[in-house]
Amino acid sequence: MTDSAYLTGTGTAPDPWRRRPNSTPNLLNLPQTSSSGNVSVTSAALSQFSVGYRLLENSTPKPSNYNVFLTPISFTVLCP
Q: What is the three-state SS of 7-68?
C-alpha cells in the first residue's frame, strides 16, 4: 500500500517507488514523523529480499539526512 498522492511507481527495479513530482511535502520540509513515503509490502513466501535506495532529488542546497527504515518486519516459520 502506498500513498498515491505522494508516491508513484510499482516498487520494481524498472519502476521503483519514488516521490511524485511537485507533491507535498517535498524533501526539504518532510518531517521525520511523516508517513508520506511509507510503503507496505506483503509476500506469501520468500527466502530473501533486496532493498535498493537512491536519492533522486538532489536540489537540496545543503547536506541533509535521509532515512530508510525497514520496520516492522514479521515472519512465521512453518513446522516441517
A: EECCCCCCCCCEECCCCCCCCCCCCCCCCCCCECCCCCCCCCCCCCCCCCCCCCCCCCCCCC
Tell if the pTM clears 0.85, that is, is over it. Answer: no
Evaluate whether 7 touches 39 at the Cβ level (below 8 Å).
Answer: yes
Tens digit of pLDDT at every position of the chain (80 positions): 567 778 888 888 888 888 888 877 776 777 778 778 788 888 877 788 887 776 655 555 555 666 777 878 877 777 87
| Residue with the three cell numbers 516521490 | 19
Cα–Cα distances (Å) from 39 to 12, 29, 69, 79, in that order, read: 13, 19, 11, 30
